[in-house]
Amino acid sequence: MSEGLSRRNFLKSAAVAGAALAGSAALAGCASGGTSSAAAPSGDWLPSSWDYETDVVVIGYGGAGMWSSLVAADEGGSEVIVLEKAPVEGGGNSRINNGEWTVIKDEKLFRDYCIAFGHGLIEEDMIDAYIAEASRHTEYADKYGMTYEVAEQALAGTIPEYWFLDDGKYAGCIGVSSVEGFGMTTFHELEAKRDELGLPVTLLFGCTDEHLIQNPENKEIVGVKFLENGTEKTVKARKGVCMCTGGFEFNEDLKNTYLSIYPFKFEGWQYNTGDGIQMVEEVGAKLWHMNMVISTTAMWTRDPEYDFAIFAGPQSDAFFTVNRLGKRFQNESKTGGTAHNGWHTLMSFSDAIDDYDRIPSWQIFDQRGVDGGPMGTQQGGWFECGNYTTDLPDEIRAWDGWSDDNQVEIERGWVLKGDTLEDLAKKIKDFDHWMDYETLKATFDEYQAFCDAGKDARFDRELTAEDNKLTEEGPYYAISIYPGSCSTLGGPKKNANAQVLDPAGNVIPRLYAAGSFGNFQAHSYGITGGNNSENMVWGRIGGRHCASLEPWDASEKK
């Protein structure tokens, strides 16, 4: 990685280059008045005219959409139109995460690792396809001018996630890239390179309510109908459609239907509402890995105007965590799980309440946790990623980051405050009726005694009265902890060519999927840097394969 690189200056200059392409790319084959000059085949299912025509349509402009469109245009010599739901450019989870991607160091050991952490649920031909393509990551990074360096330690933890399986034999089988400026830097670099190459990629924003257009006889996907800023449009996809619509982090119905526990809250790209799930179901796709997520735990705001998760916590060591009933359940200094699977610690169902008794959990702390500094992530901070990132345009930034003195969040009720422990318990109970003050008080008294004794006899946590004991006078504070942070990973099942399959295992012709929209990992998220790597692997495979097809309308032009 180049030393002395100014992240802010680089991003600003690269953004100008990337944005220029969107306005300059020609809309392939689009006749005046929104009609195509080519005669359309007969059939009520087929539009009588097309507003746009192109070779490859990519739906979604996150990391998978970037790689699909880039490779389809560059290697496949194809014209590409990208349909993006957001009104302006700026997001997708891959652009607002920490930017790390997987670097395979030992292919055989990594293959064994995938079988081990997936417990045999990951199809081996998919593992082989992934390895073959992921082994080219640094080749492509160098080709397209990406700034990175290979690291032995991930920003979020160990490499790989479950390195310790089979007596630790998988340690070191992969590394990760380290990217200054997080995912936004990589995205701007790729946009700048695409502009330099003059590739025929057109970006359309404000595209919603998409539906795939399918030939009812041979099941081919031939285009997409959608609303562009509220106006009905159609786009002809001569070669095919690559679905890169991301997860369903902000669709409560889908989360509560498919995820293993609920509620599940996320801090990422708020346009990820699972639109692609309905689209592929309409054309007969099989769904897979719908319970898969990459996620730890995070604070939920409980605020309808700011409805998302945030990485936040008390800024002192004087705190303890309780479940919905007011009981501790873990060593707070060792919360368990891996960096991207910490949500597993909240998988506790209590028949006594007929519900999950750790969702939410509550961190209880005193004034030192507030006075110690900003409790949540901020713009310009060391971990500036998520839906508040500085480089997001104002109109799609979810909020402006955590306040310096925590007072805004206390006033909004994101952080609950009580003058006494009983007052705090009442405020928690207003949100969740299962909280019991007497139980919380008994937990508080026991925890305080453990601090005086210097040892947590219940959960083997090292404690001291000076550092860990809460004040006896108050005030007291609480934040709600939920499973959540990054993204869901379920979507349509695909094969080693990234082609979407139906329930019988047949290819739905000319339909592809990449990224978090149908991640190939199963059982658990085990590949450090895997989400960005997923974008790169299946985005490149899908874009390359789709671009290689003969146009479905080739006979019309003869």
Account of the protein in words:
This protein is elongated. Helix 2 runs parallel beside helix 7 (182-197) and helix 3 crosses helix 4. 51% of the residues are buried. It is an alpha+beta fold. Strands 1, 2, 6, 7, 8, 9, 22 and 23 form an 8-stranded mixed sheet that branches. Strands 12, 13, 14, 17, 18 and 19 form a 6-stranded antiparallel sheet that branches. Strand 8 (221-228) and strand 9 (231-243) form a beta hairpin. 28% of the residues lie in helices and 19% in strands.
Features:
elongated, disordered N terminus, 15 helices, 6-stranded antiparallel β-sheet, alpha+beta, 8-stranded mixed β-sheet
Write the layout of secondary structure elements.
Blueprint: H1 7-24, E1 52-59, H2 63-74, E2 80-83, E3 102-104, H3 107-117, H4 124-134, H5 137-143, E4 149-151, H6 165-168, E5 174-178, H7 182-197, E6 201-204, E7 207-214, E8 221-228, E9 231-243, H8 252-258, H9 275-282, E10 287-288, E11 293-294, E12 297-300, E13 309-310, E14 319-322, E15 349-350, E16 355-356, E17 361-366, H10 367-371, H11 407-412, E18 416-418, H12 421-431, H13 437-453, H14 465-468, E19 476-483, E20 487-488, E21 491-492, E22 499-501, E23 507-513, H15 530-547
Parallel strand pairs: 1-2, 1-9, 2-6, 9-23
Antiparallel strand pairs: 3-5, 4-5, 7-8, 8-9, 10-21, 11-20, 12-13, 12-19, 14-17, 15-16, 17-19, 18-19, 22-23
Helix pairs in contact: 1-7, 2-7, 2-15, 3-4
Cofactor: FAD
Pfam families: FAD_binding_2, TAT_signal
Domain FAD-dependent oxidoreductase 2 FAD-binding: 55-531
